[in-house]
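In this supplementary section we document a worked example of the pipeline. Step one takes a protein sequence of length 203 as its only input; no multiple sequence alignment statistics are reported here. Step two produces a three-dimensional model, which step three serialises into structure tokens for compact storage. The input and output of this example are shown verbatim.
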Amino acid sequence: MLESVGSLTGSPWIYAMVALSVLLDVFVPVLPSGVLVITAATAAAAGSATGHVPHAVPDILSLTICAATASVLGDLVAYRLAWRGGERLDRAIARSRRLTTAQERLGAALARGGGALVILARFAPVGRSVVSLGAGAAHRRPRDFLPWSALAGLAWATYSVALGYYGGQWLGTTWLATAVSVLALFGAGAGAAYVMRRPAKAS
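The serialised model returned by step three reads:
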């Protein structure tokens, strides 16, 4: 595997590529940021499996911090843009049932002092975009949203890196290990999307 992706994972630029991909996928959710994080973490497992970790493979702690920080920054940019979006963005959200529902559920969750929805949304396909834009458009206070965004980014980054690293350790540093890890990431996303789609219980 490392021979195939060595030009990517064997360069310090891997951190910049991970950061850029994670930051931008709040606007372009089809970007394979999770796949990139897992691939880099699997490469790190290859170095560990040989008994030493050469400079040519990513460091898992640095990779986790990089992905988590980029996730929070992306959320913050989307949040601020939506905050300043004005009436045009409000009309766009009103036309989208998904955005309207997410905005309502997010407001209720934050009002109760809980942000589990923000964390779930980080794993669900497009959920991060919907929640970050919804929080900004609804003018939710930064102190109500950003701490949960930081926790969500850290949880997602830790989970993704752990999948790639331990998948590489247990299954070997092959494309099979990467594929299994990616499927596990998609499975978590599907589960998060299912929970988010369920109607909120009446209080």
